[in-house]
Amino acid sequence: MNWCLIWYGRKSPIIAFVLLSGLLASCGRESFAPPTLVPVLSLPPAQQTEIAVTAESEAAGRVSSGGRTPGTSLASSSLPTPAGVGIRPDEAQQLWVPDAGPEPPEGWRPPPYDVPLSFHYDDHYWLARPLPSGSRNYDLEWYPYGNDVQLPDMPSYRIHHGLDFPNETGTPVLAASSGTVVFAGPLPSPLNGVNYYGNTVIIQHDWQWLGQDVFTLYAHTLELFVQEGDAVEQGQLIAGVGSSGEVSGPHLHFEVRVGTNNYHDTRNPALWLAPFEGWGTLAGRFVDKNNQFISGAAMTLLPLNVDTAVRKQRTYSLVVKSDEIWQENFVFGDLPSGRYRLTIDMNDGVHIYERELEIFPGQTSFEIISATFEFTPTATPISIDTPLPGDQTGPLPEG
Length: 399
Ligand SMILES: [Zn+2]
Known about the structure:
The protein has two helices and 19 strands. The chain has a domain at 89-101 and 132-271: Glucose Permease (Domain IIA).
């Protein structure tokens, strides 16, 4: 079989102008269109920034106190204690892997851009980081969205429906945007009653995207400072990082849900959280000849002329949803701007695709990689603690 790689990309450079308001950016977008490169409207000169798009890359592109401690001033009988409710310590112990995983390439990050951020209108970086600068406000490299854990010595987890932010217990958790708290408390699975998420806050934001409601979820917290019905502002203290629920250590599990407040309607938060200043995002599609996603392909991203990978992950499992705009099946978030080499390995020792690309500050670079073969997905491995399939109308286990 003759496999080959076809790259699609704009052949002529274009100039796109800054559009500072993400809300304005969404105006007039009524349908779920694929990424486009139509120049957007210009703003007054003082607010313009030129963004060059290369032929290879479609670069479209501490907290205030005053919260309540659960169990004291909150009324509901099901509210958590600061120690958490429903923790299953035996199983948490089972999952505990001390010092697992490599250290991030750098412990320091620039401050994130202000939100909403849309240098190009395909971008919708409307959410602020749910953790303050100075804490670990960047996600765990070896458990990306749509992936199982990417460490050989770790047991299989659930396919990740969010991003994890390991932090010290009690680190402030902040609302990613304004809205209304629609859930605050332990969040057991409706399927089997297990409190996988632990003490959880869910915010329905007071804006919509493409006509759909947008929710953010904050799980495994130690304590809650909001209750259902509260209006919250972006950056408001809503909880503290904890280990409640099914966890492998204290961290924040963060989800973005679009359309409905449901485990099955998550999107990759890396496409919603504003990048760090001078940093950007890589997203793309790896598809077969029928334009169907190729899942589970091993991807490695290296800065050009550097031998150490900054990230290794796989194309999404088919169980997670893609962004309506990007229709992606991989995202590498939090990349310093510059040139990189992306390698995709079909794990057969033969078909290894390689590509140079560029990351631009504050925006998403998008790549479409099409192979000429037909991909047949293999069954997703059953991970530990995965409940039986069923009609799930509510949240499922963390992951
Ligand atoms: Zn998680």
